[in-house]
Amino acid sequence: MEEEEEAVAASAAAAAAASGGRGAGGEPGGCCGCKGVRGCLLCEAAPPPQISANFVYCPLTGFAVGEKQSEFAGWAFPFPGVFLLEGFISADEECKIVELMDCSAWKPSQSGRRKQDYGPKVNFKKRKLKAGGFAGLPSFSQEIVTRMRSHSVLKDFSPVEQCNLDYGPERGAAIDPHWDDWWLWGERLVSLNLLSATVLSMSCDSEDYIQLFPAFLQDSKQVHSSLTHAVSQEHWPKESTSLGGLRSTTKWGTDPSSPTRSVLSKEVVVAIHLPQRSLVVLYGPARYRWKHAIYRHHIKSRRICITFRELSAEFSLGGEQEELGQKLLKTALTYQGIPV
């Protein structure tokens, strides 16, 4: 996520330099980590446009449901490839983890973020990597990874890289829509959301159409059809509430015999609400078809994201670079690392 965005920004910075100018970021004096077209409150000339979602992801059903105030209210479509778990760690564990992270230096990064990297040095454009000073993931992550594996979607997950990102509203921190690299990083992207709730915004550049199904309220408390789904009437609690509000649900259904409508994929933005201390996994279509972003207006207070990545098939058992991959994985799982 972080490295790929910086590679794009570096290319933009080079283009700006060649034309005699510079991008929005990169103020002299190193007051922020922005490069090229990236910017933050410390360096930008004007704030970027803020994108609003027209669908909200419902973790109980796996459907994206039309926002009530949008033209898609009352419509829904399947949104596969997301696993969201509330309360993955306790408040006490969160405090201890953040305290340990703050004992190490945070480096300025793109778009107002700060970062700590635990992983190999990678040049994604040239497809080269080296271990550098990589000595493993941090010690506090061992229990996190063990706990992840108790869930079927992550039972064989072995992270080889960890990136801690610190978002602060005073810096206008954000991250633009992007895909994580898939030459080095594998199927699942796993993130732990700390200190505050936020929204992960999913968007797609495709010219394909998405078929929408009408959603309707059910009076019955029983679900009589495989096409009937339990969805909160508000789709998701406000940021100040817990996910527990979803447990009192209103019944929604989709009727395949009713007229459908379609919408261009590139006109859809799906909001995935991430409660504080929740764990989210992106895989399949949510990983490879949809870009993900965190917009500035969704950072209300300090937020830390811990993202774990696994190796791609090329670096895994049977892959062309299996030997290098196994060496990196062995290092990662010593849990003796410091930020590189």
UniProtKB/TrEMBL annotation:
<dbReference type="GO" id="GO:0030496">
    <property type="term" value="C:midbody"/>
</dbReference>
<protein>
    <recommendedName>
        <fullName>AlkB homolog 4, lysine demethylase</fullName>
    </recommendedName>
</protein>
<dbReference type="InterPro" id="IPR037151">
    <property type="entry name" value="AlkB-like_sf"/>
</dbReference>
<feature type="region of interest" description="Disordered">
    <location>
        <begin position="239"/>
        <end position="258"/>
    </location>
</feature>
<dbReference type="InterPro" id="IPR032857">
    <property type="entry name" value="ALKBH4"/>
</dbReference>
<dbReference type="GO" id="GO:0032451">
    <property type="term" value="F:demethylase activity"/>
</dbReference>
<dbReference type="GO" id="GO:0016491">
    <property type="term" value="F:oxidoreductase activity"/>
</dbReference>
<dbReference type="GO" id="GO:0031032">
    <property type="term" value="P:actomyosin structure organization"/>
</dbReference>
<dbReference type="GO" id="GO:0003779">
    <property type="term" value="F:actin binding"/>
</dbReference>
<dbReference type="GO" id="GO:0070988">
    <property type="term" value="P:demethylation"/>
</dbReference>
<dbReference type="GO" id="GO:0070938">
    <property type="term" value="C:contractile ring"/>
</dbReference>
